[in-house]
């Protein structure tokens, strides 16, 4: 796929100061499934030739006014690219370009906006391998996960290309009969889109898709860890026919001042943010000064409930999806496994066997099943939570010890007998750690599941549809996977309750965040 530079691979690294544990927690488990830490460290890897690395403002590529910063390969910790650090001057130019393009874009025929999104979908699918490789390189996820993300991300463009032509209004008669009530919907205006590093393509398309469909021009600020995918998407949208100024991309590793200035600017009418709950709280306070229309998709602490009538093999298969997709670095990731006591030991054994067999390595290696974490801070945070939880009484079934060597790796880890108040049970781990908490019955599982300020996702496995649906109804979350380890779908409303966010993305509801309703009272 045309990588600039050269690469060479060292032999698999073995025995990285790691002890293998069997499903019963004993060391050196013999013929039990072992964790595979056979990792190839790739050196000298660079980004594909032709990958854009400049700011994108008003249809043009350029440098930033505040210097530049490095983009690292998480598998080695080495620099793979340098991109501009946007300053306040760049923000002003981007907002000016978006504001200038806004009236004409909003007034464009719905079919015109639809066709741009449809073409962007086709371009993403045609270049899937290129985009996947770039994501694996800058974020660390396996190529399998990256290819899946490209397909998922592209689908937001296709879905909202179809929704663009279905923006409607209503005509009704006032109950008094004195007048008619006419409503129509129009674009909210210039939108600032703030996306995280864990899904560099999908989080951008999930916001750009509905914004474009509604007729909003956008300023996209991707995460500093993964700016390259966002810049490539801007290039694809331009190729698809997006007019100059409708999409602008500002890269930075110091977003605080830039975002605060944007929210204070009267040209900005919409904020959409995906990221941590802590940052979301700050942004909501800042947006309140001008009452900026705000959508927030924030943290999760998902419970994965396994009842005693569940198909355990299916539950483990679902757990591998819910926990290990993206290496556990997902807001929808299963964070707490609440397993009924009669099946807890068997579930732990089966899950440990599968998690322990995963091949760890650079995301760009076709054989990799678990790539590195995003950075050293992430690894340190995961390790700290695991170590504190083990000190509090959790038992390591498999994993739990950091390997040595280059890159930001943490092994697949299963903990059993987890105290309900320890770190891995109360905090979002955001990594490949599965803590198993034993529960007596449905009510206890629900009490623990709902005992969090978060409410994004939940998972339920039961052999009884009625029992499972009763649990789903009582879970305080925005989304539930019932006998299914994957909930994300462009055609479904994605979002949470409590401190997991405001609003929904995707589905029929996704475009609403970028539209305002105007009501006209008239009669004839």
Give a quick set of tags describing it.
alpha/beta, single chain, globular, 524 residues, six-stranded mixed beta sheet, disordered N terminus
Summarize the structure.
With 524 residues, this protein is an alpha/beta fold.
Distance between the termini: 64 Å
Q: How many beta-strand runs?
A: 22
Computed over alpha carbons, the radius of gyration is 24 Å
Q: Compute the average pLDDT.
A: 92
Unreliable residue runs: 1-41
Assign a percent range to the helix content. Answer: 25-40%
| Structural shape | globular
Determine the structural class based on helices, strands and strand pairing: alpha/beta
Neighbour order of strands in the largest sheet:
16-17-18-15-14-19-20
Separate helix tally: 14
Strand content: 15-25%
Largest sheet: 7 strands, mixed
What topology emerges from the helices and strands here?
Layout: E1 8-9, E2 42-43, E3 55-57, E4 60-62, E5 68-73, E6 78-84, H1 88-107, H2 110-126, H3 128-139, H4 143-163, E7 170-173, E8 180-187, E9 191-194, H5 202-214, E10 218-221, H6 227-239, E11 247-249, H7 255-263, E12 270-274, H8 277-288, E13 293-297, E14 302-306, H9 312-324, E15 334-340, H10 344-356, H11 376-391, E16 395-398, E17 413-416, H12 423-426, E18 433-439, H13 442-450, E19 457-461, H14 465-474, E20 479-482, E21 501-502, E22 515-522
Parallel strand pairs: 9-10, 9-12, 10-11, 12-13, 14-15, 14-19, 15-18, 17-18, 19-20
Antiparallel strand pairs: 1-2, 3-4, 5-6, 7-8, 8-22, 13-21, 16-17
């Amino acid at each position: 796929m045309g990588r600039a530079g050269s690469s060479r691979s060292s032999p698999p690294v073995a025995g990285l100061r790691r002890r293998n544990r069997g499903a019963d927690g004993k060391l050196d488990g013999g013929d039990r499934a072992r964790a595979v830490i056979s990792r190839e460290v790739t050196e000298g890897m660079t980004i594909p030739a032709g990958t854009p690395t400049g700011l994108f403002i008003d249809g043009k590529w350029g440098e930033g006014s505040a210097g530049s910063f490095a983009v690292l390969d998480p598998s080695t910790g080495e620099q793979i690219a340098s991109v501009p650090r946007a300053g306040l001057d760049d923000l002003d130019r981007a907002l000016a370009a978006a504001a200038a393009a806004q009236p004409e874009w909003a007034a464009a025929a719905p079919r015109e906006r639809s066709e741009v999104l449809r073409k962007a979908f086709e371009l993403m699918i045609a270049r899937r391998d290129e985009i996947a490789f770039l994501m694996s390189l800058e974020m660390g996820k396996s190529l399998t996960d990256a290819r899946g993300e490209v397909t998922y991300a592209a689908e937001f463009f296709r879905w909202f290309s179809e929704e663009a032509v279905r923006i409607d209004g209503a005509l009704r008669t006032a109950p008094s009969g004195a007048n008619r009530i006419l409503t129509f919907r129009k674009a909210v205006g210039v939108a600032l889109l703030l996306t995280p590093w864990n899904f560099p393509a999908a989080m951008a398309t999930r916001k750009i898709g509905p914004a474009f469909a509604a007729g909003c021009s956008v300023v996209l600020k991707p995460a500093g860890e993964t700016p390259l995918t966002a810049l490539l998407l801007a290039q694809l949208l331009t190729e698809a026919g997006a007019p100059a100024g409708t999409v602008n991309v500002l890269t930075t590793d110091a977003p605080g001042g830039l975002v605060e200035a944007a929210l204070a600017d009267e040209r900005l009418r919409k904020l959409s943010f995906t990221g941590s709950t802590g940052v979301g709280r700050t942004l909501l306070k800042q947006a309140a000064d001008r009452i900026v229309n705000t959508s927030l998709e924030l943290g999760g602490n998902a419970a994965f409930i396994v009842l005693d009538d569940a198909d355990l093999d299916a539950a483990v298969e679902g757990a591998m999806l819910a926990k290990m997709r993206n290496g556990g670095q997902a807001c929808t990731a299963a964070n707490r496994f609440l397993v009924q006591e009669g099946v807890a030991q068997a579930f732990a054994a089966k899950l440990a066997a599968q998690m322990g067999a995963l091949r760890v390595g650079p995301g760009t290696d076709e054989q990799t099943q678990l790539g590195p974490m995003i950075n050293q801070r992430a690894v340190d945070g995961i390790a700290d939570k695991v170590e504190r939880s083990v000190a509090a009484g959790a038992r390591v079934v498999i994993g739990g010890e950091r390997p040595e060597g280059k890159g930001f790796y943490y092994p697949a880890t299963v903990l059993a007998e987890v105290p309900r108040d320890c770190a891995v049970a109360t905090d979002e781990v955001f990594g490949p750690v599965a803590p198993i908490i034993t529960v007596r019955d449905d009510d206890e599982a629900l009490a623990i599941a709902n005992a969090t300020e978060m409410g994004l996702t939940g998972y339920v496995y039961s052999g009884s549809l009625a029992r499972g649906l009763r649990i789903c109804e009582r879970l305080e979350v925005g989304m539930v996977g019932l006998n299914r380890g994957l909930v994300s779908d462009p055609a479904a409303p994605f979002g949470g309750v409590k401190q997991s966010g405001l609003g929904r993305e995707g589905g029929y509801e996704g475009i609403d965040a970028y539209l305002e309703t105007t009501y006209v009272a008239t009669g004839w």
